[in-house]
Design brief:
The chain has 574 residues and is of the alpha+beta class. The protein is built from 15 helices and 15 strands.
Amino acid sequence: MKISHIKVENFLGIQRVDVELVSPITVFAGPNGAGKSCFQNAIRSALTGFMPRIDKKKEAKQLVKDGAKKGSAEVTINGEKSTIEVPSLKGVHGSVFDNPAISYVINPASFAGASADERRTSLFEITGVNPDTNNIKERMEQRGCDMKLAAYVIPLLRSGFPEAHKEAKDKASEARGAWKSVTGETYGSQKAEGWERECPAAVDEDRLEQMENRMAVVLHEVGEKGRKIGGLQGLKLQAQDEQAIVSKLQEIADQYETIHTQYLAAHKRSSKCASDLNTLKRKVMTGDDLTILECPHCQGKVAHVSDSLVAYQDPADVDPAVLAEYEELKQEAERAYELANELSLELDRSKRAQDELSNRPRIEVVTDEQIAALDAEASALMEEHDLLHEDLKAARAEKLEYELAVNANRRAAESHELVKAWSEIADALAPDGIPSEILGEAIKPINDRLKVSAAGTEWMTPRIHADMSITADGRLYHLLSESEQWRVDVLIAEAFSHVSGLKFLVIDRFDVLHPSLRSSLINWLADIAGSGQIDSAIVLGTLKKPTATIEGVMSSFWIEGGVLTTQKQEQQAA
């Protein structure tokens, strides 16, 4: 992709740069603080939307050059313009905006400054190696992973390998914890293989069933004995109650003759007293029991006595002795009558007792011997029950211990298998597993290009490793000198540009190179430009004077005070 025009106004330290790029290589040089890095930042902002030197959008006004109200940057690539305005941050992004390599070809040092995960993701995107789910599943199946378990973590791949890898490791850790909870021991892969708890002999199920059946029979018989004993004790109590009732009835019945004789005597006495009282009434002609009438002929008073009428004698005329005798006899007659009635009732009660005795049903007599015999039988059954209970308790405990051991061995084996299965999945998803395989496919075209470029520049050969470390001729990146790191950054940026198809570079700070090495950079860029491997290369650096131009290959511009020298002269002339 050819960069044909760059226009920057009032952006950071740049006042105005408006330049047509007619050569594949364009060098922008100038003294320190002239605005070269600002120029590079303006290009980067126009192509990527990245805002340098600010953290928040509200700080965007600081990107405008002092004294101006707004600024802008515009880069034309293959006839397509990408722009950015400050402080509004509005702009138009060309198609290069979506290219994953754009940030690195404009700012070569940014790849080494990225995290391992960011480097890995960028390599996948730049090389077009797609670690899609189906591809990963096929690789996991080839490794022999348990795909039923893998189904739980595969959806997490949408968030990247680290999330899925962490989940698989957590599952393996859970399985190790489950193994420890079963065994009581710390998990070890060799220890867990074939681990078994000491298992007692299996219980004779037939014998256990016979014991349980006999226990059921004994419990039933004990219950029956208990019910029978309860029945006999109830009958015994009933018989005792009946005996008390019969004894009482017999006592009352036995009094019949005595009461009968007493009754006859009382009745006789009552009758005599009544007769004597009736006779005496005629003498006293008084008493509350007399009926006093008036004679219809002479109007004299008469009394009704024993169905006959006699002349009524006033009580005042009666002999007091006869009247006293009458009152005494009257009271005796009343007592004789009441006694006869009481004895009549007692006689009826005694008769009823006799009748009830003759009609009362017989009650079965229960002896203590009968109850004692049943108690002995029940005790014998309970002794058998206690022995059976102890035997059953021991047999069931043995059975439980056996089952627990068998179950523990099964669960331990299952947990161990889960540990192995999840560990295999975790290993497959680990950085040095499938990601490394896929990453190797992504890294290869980059490392191949780095070999070619290192040979063309005669610089150290950079290499990106599966763990995302960077080396040059085997030395780690952070151990390199500043100049060596710069060269590694440039070669990596060019490799990204080449593989992604961008075919352009923006390189700042080339003054970090020793003068003897600067020519190797320009010669290499000229070679790959001449062979069509790169369309545009912009090189910026701090120099004491402008570089020479190479007709048709390299153009050179001098930046000072935020403008190109020729543009500055034109402004001064105007």
